[in-house]
Amino acid sequence: MKQLINQALKTALLIIKLVIPFYLLADILIYLGILQKISFIFEPITSIMGLSPEVSLSIAAGVLFNLYAAIAFAAPLGLTPYEWTILGLFLGIAHALPVENTIMKKLSMPHWYSTLLRIGVGIIAVIILRTLPIHIEGKTLQKEMTLPHYDSFWDMITTSLYNASVLAIKIIILITIIIFIMHFIRTKLFKNKNLSASFSIITGIILGITYGAGVLIAEKDKLTKKELLYVGTFLMIAHSLIEDPLLFVLFGANFWVLVGIRLVLAVIFSYLVVKFYKL
């Protein structure tokens, strides 16, 4: 039990170190208007995706920070359901790269691999969608979503710190519960058989990279490097397949397209990575 508690505490400390600083950084850059000035970097991607350059700001916010910031920038643009599906498909795979790639680094996956994989597969997913004979209909739902407004820099810092702390606490509680549940299943029901890989995939598919990787981080010593690479690759492509797609469904995106293409690509690329692992 003592070892189990130590694992939970180490994972909790890691979550605090990763979530709170990047959450604060995101709010500071948005408050200072710096984010708007770097969105041009992503305009080549919007061209490949068949979207207008104005969407680059949304992509920049999503890739660097989170889906909520991305949607806040995209909502006023009057995108069609098809365009929302394209945006949701790409950002569903490639979002919050600084934070989530740092988490994957703890699983021995370098930043360059995580970045190239997620952006590359995201673009491939969009290309596949644009070539498929799928007609996406539906009226765009109007949902007001704007960036937070603060009266002062200090107000922004205190509010951001509070929100980041609440988020970190929620993640820590959930991951701790998962760690204890895994321990019970492994020791009582399956007599210490290794369930880390499959359990982390299920957790990641439902809850996201942070949760799925959190399970892996706590149990990484029980997995081989090949298993970590397979699960990590799968999770980076297919994670949070309920909450994230539904954010875009609010604006008319096709839920089954968002989930189906990501699952298929996750299986394909994970298989290829394992097949050519020695190379």
TrEMBL record:
TM regions (residue ranges): 12-35, 55-75, 82-99, 111-129, 161-185, 197-216, 228-249, 255-274
Keyword list, A-Z: Membrane, Transmembrane, Transmembrane helix
Name the UniProt record assigns to this protein: Transporter gate domain protein
